[in-house]
């Protein structure tokens, strides 16, 4: 019996575009210290201004994936913000990663699956969906509150139906966001994904609607209710390891159905909070602390929390295209 590939389906690629990747990243001053902590945590000794950043980032990513228990990771593009008339506003998006870049990375490296990003307000949205699907896209990633995507707009129905036709699932950010500028705070709920769900798209609510900051609004309960209504609604546990996430982890450990694994790399896994809760043993805690590979740390952390192994493989049944280990 061949086992299904283990997949981390929520991995960010970042770059400054200085070597022609087409990427763009602007980080507000207050986020610079967090960026430095993340860079150190993933073993990247460089800065956002480094001309070789894009290449170094990918090299490090490949190194970590190859020396982890994961067979593949989905590397995510990030589209610009568009208004409802279809005008692009690059100045309002902190990060841009072109589809062509993740498609190219996936062609070059068998560890990568491409997660493209297409704002449905784009004039060429349907054509770009078809182009990306033909080029091997595994899923579509959107951040409704950052990119200003009101998924429930009737006008986008054709876009969701095209995704169903092309067997492309949607990975959509839900809950609070702190790494990127929030342009539409009213689009953080799981409810905002109702129309694609009703159209039959397999939707993965990233972070299961969990808040990012203690005073933020939490949509976990909404996720739990909607998961029972829609068999095509999944959640991921990306970046859920901080003190604000403990309630979510507690609930999801009790009922881990329709749950998929994402790391949100380069976001790091914090292991102290679950230790304080007593969810991992002292020896597991010591073992986890010693793991330097961020992917392996996330993998072992998830297993130590008691999530089933299927959390790493169930995504195989919904992503586009056959995936071989
Ligand atoms: Zn993310």
Structural class: alpha/beta
Question: How much helix is in the residues?
Answer: 25-40%
Major sheet attributes: 8 strands, parallel
CATH superfamily: Metal-dependent hydrolases
> What is the level 1 CATH name?
Alpha Beta
Task: Calculate Rg over CA atoms.
Answer: 18 Å
Shape: globular
Strand elements, count: 10
- Tell me the domain tally: 1
CATH topology: TIM Barrel
Strand content: 5-15%
Number of helices: 12
Biggest β-sheet: strands ordered side by side in the sheet: 1-3-5-6-7-8-9-10
* Mean model confidence by pLDDT: 92
Write the element-wise H/E pattern from the N-terminal end onward: EEHHEEHEHEHHEHEHEHEHHH
Distinct ligands, ions and cofactors found in the model: zinc ion
Distance between the termini: 13 Å
CATH architecture: Alpha-Beta Barrel
| Unreliable parts | none
Task: Describe the protein.
The protein is α/β, with parallel strands linked by helices and 325 residues long. It has one domain (7-317): Metal-dependent hydrolases (TIM Barrel, Alpha-Beta Barrel), CATH 3.20.20. It contains 12 helices and 10 strands. The strands form 2 sheets. Strands 1-3-5-6-7-8-9-10 form an 8-stranded parallel sheet. β7 (170-173), α7 (194-199) and β8 form a beta-alpha-beta unit. The model has no long low-confidence stretch (mean pLDDT 92). It binds zinc ion. Residues 10, 12, 238, 264 line the site of zinc ion. Zinc ion (ZN) is lined by residues 10, 12, 238, 264.
């Amino acid at each position: 019996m061949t086992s299904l590939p283990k997949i981390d389906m929520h991995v960010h690629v970042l770059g400054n575009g200085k070597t022609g990747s087409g990427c763009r990243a602007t980080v507000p001053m207050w986020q610079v210290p967090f960026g430095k902590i993340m860079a150190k945590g993933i073993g990247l000794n460089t800065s956002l201004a480094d001309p070789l950043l894009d290449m170094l980032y990918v090299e490090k990513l490949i190194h970590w994936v190859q020396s982890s228990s994961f067979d593949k990771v989905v590397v995510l593009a990030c589209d610009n913000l568009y208004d409802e008339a279809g005008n692009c506003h690059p100045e309002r998006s902190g990060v841009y990663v072109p589809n062509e870049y993740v498609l190219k990375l996936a062609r070059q490296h068998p560890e990568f699956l491409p997660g493209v990003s297409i704002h449905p307000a784009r004039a060429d949205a349907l054509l770009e969906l078809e182009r990306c699907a033909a080029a091997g896209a595994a899923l579509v990633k959107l951040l409704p509150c950052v990119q200003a995507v009101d998924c429930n707009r009737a006008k986008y129905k054709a876009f969701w139906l095209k995704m169903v036709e092309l067997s492309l699932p949607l990975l959509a950010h839900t809950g609070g966001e702190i790494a990127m500028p929030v342009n539409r705070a009213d689009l953080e709920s799981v409810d905002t994904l109702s129309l694609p769900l009703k159209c039959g798209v397999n939707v993965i609510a990233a972070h299961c609607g969990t808040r990012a900051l203690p005073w933020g609004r939490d949509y976990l309960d909404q996720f739990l209710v909607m998961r029972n209504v829609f068999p095509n609604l999944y959640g991921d546990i990306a970046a859920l390891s901080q003190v604000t996430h403990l309630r979510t982890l507690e609930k999801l450990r009790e009922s881990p159905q329709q749950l998929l694994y994402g790391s949100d790399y380069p976001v790091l896994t914090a292991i102290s909070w679950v230790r304080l809760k007593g969810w991992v043993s002292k020896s597991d805690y010591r073992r986890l602390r010693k793991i330097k590979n961020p992917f392996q740390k996330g993998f072992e952390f998830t297993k130590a929390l008691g999530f089933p192994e299927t959390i790493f493989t169930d995504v195989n049944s919904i992503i586009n295209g056959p995936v071989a280990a």
